[in-house]
Amino acid sequence: MATINGKDIHKLVVACDAGMGSSVMLASTLRKQLGKNGVTVEHSPVNSIPADADLVVCHSGLAARARSVAPSKPIVPFQVFLGDPAVTKVVKAIQQGTDLNV
């Protein structure tokens, strides 16, 4: 398990399979929550994760693919698109500048 500090997250990528619906809503929600913290939130297909991403969040069903595409990036898998505890931990770590275990 790796650790990244919330202060070191400047670009967060929400990776998805098809690029429709729920993951777009999650990216929009995170953009609103983290905009004041200077974090850029992007939405990307899991096969095209940007090289400059500091952290990737994706549905747990896509986590293995995300790790193969971006092996050096911390990946946070989640189960539920809105209100998932894993995503809440990411938001808190960024807002409070605390460590996040990934």
Report on the architecture of this protein.
The structure is a single chain. The chain is built from 3 helices and 6 strands; from the N terminus they run ββαββαβαβ. It has a 4-stranded parallel beta sheet with strand order 3-2-4-5, with helices on both faces. Strands 1-6 form a two-stranded antiparallel ribbon. It is globular. The chain has helices at residues 22-34, 63-69, 85-96; strands at 3-5, 11-16, 40-45, 55-59, 75-78, 99-101. The mean pLDDT is 94. Helix 2 (63-69) links the parallel strand 4 and strand 5 (75-78). With 102 residues, it is α/β, with parallel strands linked by helices.
List strands and helices in order, with pairings.
Elements: E1 3-5, E2 11-16, H1 22-34, E3 40-45, E4 55-59, H2 63-69, E5 75-78, H3 85-96, E6 99-101
Parallel strand pairs: 2-3, 2-4, 4-5
Antiparallel strand pairs: 1-6
| Parts with pLDDT < 50 across at least 5 consecutive residues | none
What is the number of helical segments per DSSP (H or I, 4+ residues)?
Answer: 3
Biggest sheet strand order reads 3-2-4-5
Radius of gyration: 12 Å
State the major sheet: 4 strands, parallel
What order do the SSEs take from the amino end to the carboxyl end, as H and E? EEHEEHEHE
Average of the residue pLDDT scores? 94
Shape: globular
Count of strand segments? 6
